[in-house]
Amino acid sequence: MIVATRPAGSGRRLHPLAVRIMHWINAVAMIVMITSGWGIYNDDVIIRGLHFPDYLRLGDWAAWSLNWHFAGMWLSVLNGLAYLVYGSITGRLRERMLPIRIAEVWATIRDTLHFKLAHEDLTVYNAVQKLLYIIVILAGIAQVVTGVAIWKPIQFSGLVALLGGFQTARVIHFAGMTIIFGFLIVHVVLALLIPQTLLAMVTGGPRIARSPGQPDRHT
User: FRET partner for 148 with CA separation of 20 to 30 A, picked from 67, 71, 185, 205?
Assistant: First the structure.
């Protein structure tokens, strides 16, 4: 993916300690939720003929998978809220993910299809990266909403009706899982292809310069 180059500064790290901790907590929570979700899915499949093999499931049967799913859910929700609050207060969400311009998205896609990939500067996200991160955040929020509807369909009957019924809520929940799983696969593949991105999430990455007069709130 094409990224612009700018000089590293002597300011804060690209990935502050708080971000790194939340990133790895989220990785664990996502693995727990996806694999336990596959165990729950197998008990009442949505797509006929699609079953997940036992070695990919967390939990020997649906009840155990459900327990693991709830554990991962609470960890994911609390960690996600912490990330959104942190990103909003520090301005990291706005700084890293905005603005997104359609012309830049198309330009990045075109360059990627021509294998013009560059990652000299890890401190800049291109338009497609920004868009994907926003999509996966929205998918995560949708998972919470549909998950609550599936978990307590009687208590949240109004929400279930708004989603188009219990089975439709399950389908939306499954689609959200597919989006998140696809994002994780791409994320892992890119990390393996460009090891410095993985190293940056462990060490904090390069230091980046602050804008004049901007407080160093992320360290």
Answer: 185
* 98 vs 1, higher pLDDT: 98
Structural domain containing residue 78: 16-207
**Does 16 sit behind a cis peptide bond, omega within 30 degrees of 0 on the bond before it?**
no
Taking the model in full, what pTM does it have?
0.79
What's phi and psi for 12, nearest 5 deg?
A: -75, 165
Closest to 1 measured CA to CA, from 137, 135, 104, 136: 104
The domain that holds 38 is classified in CATH as: 1.20.950.20
Q: Does residue 66 register a pLDDT over 50?
A: yes
Average pLDDT score over the chain: 84
Total domains, the chain = 1
Residue 212 in domain: no
Chain centroid, CA 132 distance in Å: 9
